[in-house]
Amino acid sequence: GILSALLWPLGWVYGKGTSLVRAFKKPQRFPVPIISIGNIVCGGAGKTPTAIALAHLLQARGIKVHFVTRGYSGNQKGPLKVNPTFHTATDVGDESLLLAKQAPTWVAKIRPQGVQKAIEDGAQLIILDDGHQTTSLYKDLSFVVVDLLQGFGNRSVIPAGPLREGLKEGLKRTDALIGIGEGEKLFSQPFFKAQSIPHPLTLPANRVIAFCGLGFPQKFYKTLQNLGVDLIATESFPDHYKYKEEDLLRLHNQARYHEAVLVTTRKDMVKIPPPWQSHLHVLDISIQFEDSERMLEFISQKIAGLL
């Protein structure tokens, strides 16, 4: 609307600035293949569960996959191998903890250092989580994840819209798009469909208050409604939000007043202190590719000798 139009010049400057930075950076090459899973929107596309799904496909073929991530919102600079039994979201960020439960995961603010450590630790392939805007690494294959309900919004760069960079610029570096949910093929790049599959959810009551800190919270709430729960209230926090005691106490009291249960996401649960976790229920999801064999064939064409 009007606000987006007023902010468009700032978005244009931001987009041009990121393009200039990228133009003057020489990406570093490594002796193992690097696959980037990223997005062009600011958040909520589903890149982390997609990275996990891709890792599972490759692990099933006997490939030793390691994740490398910046550890957004964590205070550790790395390079650091994540230990999910020891590290917290304050240390390494929420997404790093989710990844580390699936494959060896390295947090590195300077990501080439994380890649080097992963190789020394036996990695045969690196999945770079949230890597599309990373300029310091050469990527053998770049996937961009798109939630087909969200799309690319108004296709304007922040703050005028949801994009991290100009859409044309972002797509130019994209080998293929992975579309999650219901929708048609976008643009001319190879396109792979995937679905977000919710895990079974057993609740002591059907009345639910849902809360989350996601880039696109509406997807979480819609999934709960599709499961048939009575969603009486929702509360959305900023992406990567670190919950405070007063937030949790207020939500707990609200649930008691309405005789409802609190439901959140796995990404949020890892940021909540253990004493509060027993009061919450988690909706887990998995990403399922509609044609995993075609996905593997595409990867083997781009990375010769891998499969």
Dominant shape: globular
Mean pLDDT value: 90
| Total number of helices | 11
Number of strands: 13
Largest sheet geometry: 9 strands, mixed
Q: What is shown here, in short?
A:
The protein is built from eleven helices and 13 strands. With 307 residues, it is α/β, with parallel strands linked by helices.
Structure description:
The longest helix is centred in the first third of the chain and has 22 residues, at about 1-25. The termini are far apart. The strands form two sheets. Strands 3-4-2-5-1-6-7-8-13 form a nine-stranded mixed β-sheet, with helices on both faces. A four-stranded parallel β-sheet has the order 10-9-11-12. The chain is an alpha/beta fold and about 300 residues long. The mean pLDDT is about 90. The protein has eleven helices and 13 strands. Strand 6 (about 140-145), helix 6 (about 165-170) and strand 7 (about 175-180) form a beta-alpha-beta unit.
Task: For the structure shown, list the relevant keywords.
307 residues, 4-stranded parallel β-sheet, globular, alpha/beta, single chain, 9-stranded mixed β-sheet
What's the topology here?
Elements: H1 2-23, E1 34-38, H2 47-60, E2 65-69, E3 80-81, H3 89-92, H4 94-100, E4 105-107, H5 111-120, E5 125-129, E6 141-147, H6 167-172, E7 176-180, E8 191-198, E9 207-212, H7 217-226, E10 230-236, H8 245-257, E11 261-265, H9 266-269, H10 274-277, E12 280-283, E13 285-289, H11 292-302
Parallel strand pairs: 1-5, 1-6, 2-4, 2-5, 6-7, 7-8, 9-10, 9-11, 11-12
Antiparallel strand pairs: 3-4, 8-13
